[in-house]
Amino acid sequence: MYTVFARKYRPRNFDEVIGQKHCTTTLKNAISQGRIAHAYLFAGPRGVGKTTTARILAKALNCDNGPTPTPCNECIHCKEITQGSSVDVIEIDGASNRGIDEIRNLRENARYVPSSSKYKVYIIDEVHMLTDPAFNALLKILEEPPSHIIFIFATTQPQKLPQTILSRCQRFNFRRIGFEDTLSTLKLIIEKEKIKIEENAIKLIARKADGALRDAEGMLDQLVAYSDSLIREEDVRNVLGLPSEDVFFNIQSYIAKGNTKELLSLIQQMIESGISAEEILTGFLEHLRLVLLVNTNVNISLLPEERKKYITAGSQQSPNVILRIMRFLLETRREMRYSENPDIYLLETMTRLSAFKTVPIEKIIESLEATPYGTAEESPAVSEAKGSYRTDEITAYGTAPKTKMQEIWEQVAGTMEKESKTIASIIALGNPVELDKNRIVVEFPNDFHRDAIKEKKKLVEKHLSKVTGRDLKIIFKKDKTKDIEKENTMLKKTLKFFSAEVVSRGG
Prior knowledge:
The chain has 25 helices and eight strands.
């Protein structure tokens, strides 16, 4: 029977575990000193060796030579644990055995001594999936554990565990496996399996794995099945559904030049080819990360021609601008997860980054991000010290001066940033044209931005009240200037290009 690479090359002792030396060294020393805890918590991302390390710990405790930091892997106990057939090492999936009845059964069985081993070891994977009653049932045996019982909990979300459980475990935080460690491990497998593969293809797999070695091994396995000869970079992209790196260079170039049509056309082609919106965003973020690192002279593994391309890309925008774009895209990606239509969300995001062709890209990003507008800490106390518009000044003027209106609106954007950078960035695009003691009248570049703020009108008015100390209402006004008409024309062309329409939601 065929054995997949992730199982075939699974570490058999602590020294073979990749990228987790801070955990394995502590465990080895604890075993050597006889400082064996009754409960361990292995926390970290998926595919980094938590369950594998748990099995090695079980072998180290139950080996015929043990407890020992170097299990022999030859005795009957080591072999049974490796094969998953040991009756004294019980692996439980927390996702499918999450109820109180399952934990009560565990408690009953835990009272009995091991059949042939020194310790009875319970490995509970994804332990955060247990219900609250199940955790309460588990707590009892953790408080007064029998001397022959060892618990090893593994989880990707330790924050979901009750403090009463966390406080009774020795916690080990597993890290994402570094790119170089992943790459060297893949090359070792490739050498042993005599696989023919291009260097760029290996690097692409290692990058795509994003710190999860198990994922990297699984992808390599899949590609070996796909290609019966040489595995090329193109094969990796086809099988894993990854866009070409040139695509992201083009996206960056279109944004820098304000070429909305070409940008949206490219994004739409990628979506139609089956690449998800989140995959596109993640890929572009990784591209910008490499651009930033290369252009700040950070030493990373790239071919000379690759490095030259990233240097050229970095000349289009300053590091500060790239950082602002990345921060904006990270916020977009977080909010996209709750969107019913992430594809349209992505198109809207890219439009906002590139639509205003007559404005330099630095100005666009500044308007999208927090830097240009005030901070929450400035209002209302600091603003009052500057010459307050919170009290009688509005009444005295009838309508506040333009500079005061702008200051107020910028600070509203600043206070809103902590709740939603996306909404804050849209607020920053607004232009206050009238302000009295009862209301503020604001223009927006187009219907889309105005409608987006209308949906959050009560929340924005709440922040407006914090800034001014008054219960002011927001009144929306269409901008009739020629510049805005041109922008609306551009928006109409964009909608026509995608056979779409703006639906007014009122508010």
